[in-house]
């Protein structure tokens, strides 16, 4: 015979709560108290005559033995090998206590029979639980008929055992539901951890790969200038640019770490600071506007919009130097969007080539992936003499 994976003690109504040790002690106390009370009542009242005395004594002995099995299996992890005898022990208890409840003046054994059937419904699978309940009902009926008990007594005892089984199944269902809820919470926590790891990995990849890739190209260029052209002045200029890139990469890494820690400025303030820095470094006019009701955004949304603005400003400096740039942050009712526009200049050169950068990720594809993960949209392209980069995320 097999048991379900959710087996536990019979009256563990709250056994899935945090304070399980206390609840086990309470359940143990309830079981022992019931057995002691029934034993005292049986021994202080007149014993029935004939074979009924043996039936009641057998019921008490079996109940004490089964209680010992319950206690030892409940308080030992993992459960001992003899825990596999629990279904047979419950059958023996249900049969003997059911039979004793059918003897003259033996109604108090209904309490122990109820206890056994509740345990069967709670701890065993449906087939075994029904078997224990059926044997208990049959034993009650046989003894009751043999002793000439009233039909009301026999039917009442049978109904009590059926209700005990239903109660036990309800306990098992509640326990299984609680265990599944715990498993779901654990799975959700694992999923959240994996999402956070992926977000950190993506951020580190985007920042470091972009910075180190550009720095490597500058170093290669400097080496080529020195070895092929022997132009020390130009090499020094290239190395100076490489140093600036390295500093920018360090600053970008610090900003990424602060963002991952949630230590960022409000989005509007951060974008205004980016625009001011870009204008100061590149001599380009940058305007920044905010519309709608400003509201806090999740860190990943704020970080994605900030990255998009940085990429758009870098590309405007490389492909349309000193051309005005406009940034518009819009807090709409259902979305938050950022639009970055810059004039293409007389040449009308677009940014498409830069958006597919050397690391193969940080440009257009990387930005689009960021916003897809946020259930948003991203687009970049020419429009009416301007290069327009726009991102939108749901509220």
Description:
There is one protein chain. By secondary structure, this protein is α+β, with helices and mostly antiparallel strands. The chain has two domains: 170 residues, no CATH class; 129 residues, Heat Shock Protein 90 (2-Layer Sandwich), CATH 3.30.565.10. Helix content is 66%, strand content 10%. It is built from eleven helices and five strands.
Key terms:
single chain, alpha+beta, Heat Shock Protein 90, 2 domains, five-stranded mixed sheet, 11 helices, disordered N terminus
Number of domains: 2
Major beta sheet summary: 5 strands, mixed
Number of strands: 5
Strand order of the largest sheet: 1-2-3-5-4
Short description:
The chain is α+β, with helices and mostly antiparallel strands and 395 residues long.
Topology:
Blueprint: H1 20-44, H2 52-74, H3 86-101, H4 109-123, H5 126-146, H6 151-229, H7 232-260, H8 267-282, E1 286-292, H9 299-319, E2 325-331, E3 335-343, H10 352-355, H11 364-373, E4 377-383, E5 386-394
Parallel strand pairs: 1-2
Antiparallel strand pairs: 2-3, 3-5, 4-5
Helix pairs in contact: 1-2, 1-4, 2-3, 3-4, 3-5, 4-5, 4-6, 5-6, 6-7, 8-9
């Amino acid at each position: 015979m097999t048991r379900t994976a959710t087996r536990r003690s019979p009256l563990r109504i709250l056994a899935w709560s945090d304070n399980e040790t206390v609840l086990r002690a309470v359940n143990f106390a309830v079981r022992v108290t019931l057995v002691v009370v029934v034993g005292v009542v049986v021994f202080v009242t007149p014993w029935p005559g004939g074979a009924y005395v043996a039936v009641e004594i057998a019921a008490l002995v079996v109940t004490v033995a089964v209680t010992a099995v319950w206690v030892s299996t409940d308080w030992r992890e993992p459960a001992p090998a003899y825990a596999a005898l629990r279904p047979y022990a419950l059958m023996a208890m249900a049969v003997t206590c059911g039979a004793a409840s059918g003897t003259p003046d033996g109604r108090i054994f209904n309490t122990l029979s109820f206890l056994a059937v509740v345990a069967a419904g709670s701890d065993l699978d449906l087939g075994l639980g029904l078997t224990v309940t059926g044997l208990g009902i049959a034993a009650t009926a046989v003894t009751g008929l043999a002793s000439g008990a009233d039909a009301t007594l026999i039917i009442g005892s049978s109904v009590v055992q059926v209700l005990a089984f239903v109660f036990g199944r309800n306990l098992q269902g509640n326990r299984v539901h609680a265990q599944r809820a715990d498993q779901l919470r654990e799975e959700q926590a694992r999923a959240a951890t994996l999402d956070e790891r992926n977000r950190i990995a993506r951020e580190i990849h985007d920042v470091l790969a972009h910075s180190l890739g550009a720095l490597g190209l500058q170093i290669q260029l400097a080496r080529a200038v020195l070895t092929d052209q022997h132009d020390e002045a130009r090499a020094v200029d290239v190395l100076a640019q490489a140093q600036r890139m390295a500093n920018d990469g360090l600053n970008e890494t610090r900003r990424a770490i602060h963002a991952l820690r949630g230590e960022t400025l409000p989005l509007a303030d951060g974008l205004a600071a980016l625009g001011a820095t870009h204008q100061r470094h590149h001599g380009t006019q940058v305007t920044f506007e905010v519309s709608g009701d400003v509201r806090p955004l999740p860190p990943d949304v704020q970080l994605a919009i900030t990255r998009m603005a940085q990429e758009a400003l870098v590309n405007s400096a490389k492909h349309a130097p000193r051309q005005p740039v406009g940034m518009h942050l819009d807090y709409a009712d259902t979305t938050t969007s950022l639009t970055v526009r810059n004039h293409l200049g007389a040449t009308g050169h677009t940014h498409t080539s830069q958006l597919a950068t050397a690391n193969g990720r940080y440009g257009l594809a990387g930005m689009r992936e960021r916003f897809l993960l946020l259930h948003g949209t991203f687009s970049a392209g020419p429009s009416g003499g301007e290069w327009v980069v726009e991102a939108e995320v749901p509220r």
